[in-house]
Design a protein that fits this description.
Organism (chain A): Adineta ricciae (Rotifer)
Number of domains of chain B: 2
GO molecular function, one term (chain A): proton-transporting ATPase activity, rotational mechanism
Radius of gyration of chain B: 23 Å
GO cellular component, one term (chain A): proton-transporting V-type ATPase, V0 domain
InterPro entries (chain A): ATPase_csu/dsu_sf, ATPase_V0-cplx_csu/dsu, ATPase_V0-cplx_dsu, V-type_ATPase_csu/dsu, V-type_ATPase_csu/dsu_dom_3
Helix content of chain B: over 70%
Oligomer: heterodimer
Strand content of chain A: under 5%
Shape of chain A: globular
Largest sheet of chain A: none
Order of helices and strands of chain A: HHHHHHHHHHHHHHH
Distance between the termini of chain B: 52 Å
Largest interface: A-B, 17 and 21 residues
Keywords (chain A): Hydrogen ion transport, Ion transport, Transport
Number of strands of chain A: 0
Structural class of chain B: mainly alpha
Distance between the termini of chain A: 31 Å
CATH class of the largest domain in chain B: Mainly Alpha
Number of helices of chain B: 7
Number of strands of chain B: 0
Largest sheet of chain B: none
Radius of gyration of chain A: 21 Å
Number of helices of chain A: 15
Shape of chain B: flat
Helix content of chain A: 55-70%
Chain lengths: ~350, ~200
Amino acid sequence: MKEDLVFNLDHGYAEGLCRGFRSGILKSTDYHNLVQCETLEDLRLHLQSTDYGNFLSNESNPLTVNVIDDRLREKIVQEFQHLRNISYEPLSTFLDYITYGYMIDNIVLLITGTLHQRAIGDLLPRCHPLGSFEQLGAITVADTPAQLYTAVLVDTPLAPYFIDCISEHDLDELNVEIIRSTLYKAYLEDFYNFCKNLGGVTAEVMCEILAFEADRRAFMITINSFDTGLTQDDRAKLYPTCGHLHPDGLQELRRTDNYEGVRDVASRYPQYKVLFDGSGTNTGDKTIEDRFFEHEVKLNMNAFLRQFHFGIFYAYLKLKEQENRNIIWIAECISQKHRARIDNYIPIF
Amino acid sequence: MTTSYLSKGALSAGVGLTIYAGLTYMLTNYGFRFDIGWFLLSISPYQWALIGIALAVSLSVLGAALGIFATGVSILGGGVKAPRIRTKNLISIIMCEAVAIYGLIMGIVISGSITSFMTTKPEELALKYRAGYKLFGAGLTVGLCNLFCGVCVGLVGSGAALADAQNSSLFVRILIIEIFASAIGLFGLIVSILQSNGANMSD
């Protein structure tokens, strides 16, 4: 109760602003208008009447999907960085934690790009701006994870997550994905503990969302590793332990080796049973990734139902990203004139 | 609640000393020295009355301040993307301000009853002490009631501003909640006036 009293002192303005941004998220009527567009010009016109306004007005014709993607991302980065600039502690640390996920993606992007002999000048613009840090450009110099750590990452906030990854193996394709999963596991568990220590409503809301994220990663790692050379023990090292599946579900997942086995594990947990039941691997069904996205959207929407907590900032960023994915999906369907599955976006409101 | 070792140590040291002092008094037959009645009588009734005024005004203002900052910040934040809420939501601020005014009124009413007395007769002195306690009680009542009322109106007003920014039909409904919250401050004012009635300090 004490947190309710003094929350507004430091974070009231940021919360009000974030809720204002949230009211600009596209509604189902906006999506109806967007799917009926014939060209990308129509799309631009319809987006002008929403909260996006004239964000595409300076683009030269012809409009491409890549340009729309860049402008959408720019807008969300601008909003997030404004919130970060006006925030006080501990909200600032919370928002920093959110950016660490993007830093991990950027590091993996650069390492993979270097392995494919791309120039650093091509790769840096493709990095996500929220995950940029000073030493980002120096990553291409390293050959092994140990070098990467000692030369580049030891001063960044990601240093504690790298402890598990240091090995003398060279950075190659498979290793890089394992590094990404290990880093993300450490980051997710650290974020979960941080939210738990914050306590109050923030802990309740965020721990729910992060537990689902952890379980989703465990499921996806299992499903995606069936035909690769990843052994069961290696796979088990990549499962985050902060979800509902820990410890029994993760043990079961370790031993499965087909999709039906994963389904059986999920059927022991009522919230995941529902998700797996509604999905399938046939062409007409929703895939399990779509169901996971839908569930994530539902959890993020619920975060806005409570006041005086930090979860709304995380939820807003994730909902905005989902909206961006939706708009790009619709734009791709329009530009390739393949309108059969244009309705497969994830509705938010 | 996280308490550090320092505060735990200080607390247990304090409790230990109190028990030691109490046992010493009791076991050495000097228990009569621990005299609450003497302590109360040696505090002048003026002290009680004036602390009552201080509590009335300061706690009311504290409640109003907590309420106004809680609401004001939400109006600012919500008003960035929904500028139409800015004027309508000032009603919440006015209701918080009313809480501070109740405290001011009671402060004036209580201070009007304070006059000097010269008597030394015990039966008349008793009446002066009674007046002092009544005024202290009146001030404490209105101060604490307004503190909680102000905080309550402020938090509800913050929710009202953010809800209004999303959907303008919600504002009037949440305003009804605020009116109920404001009523509890009024209860404090009424009881406090009844308490300070008849507190006569003159000879």
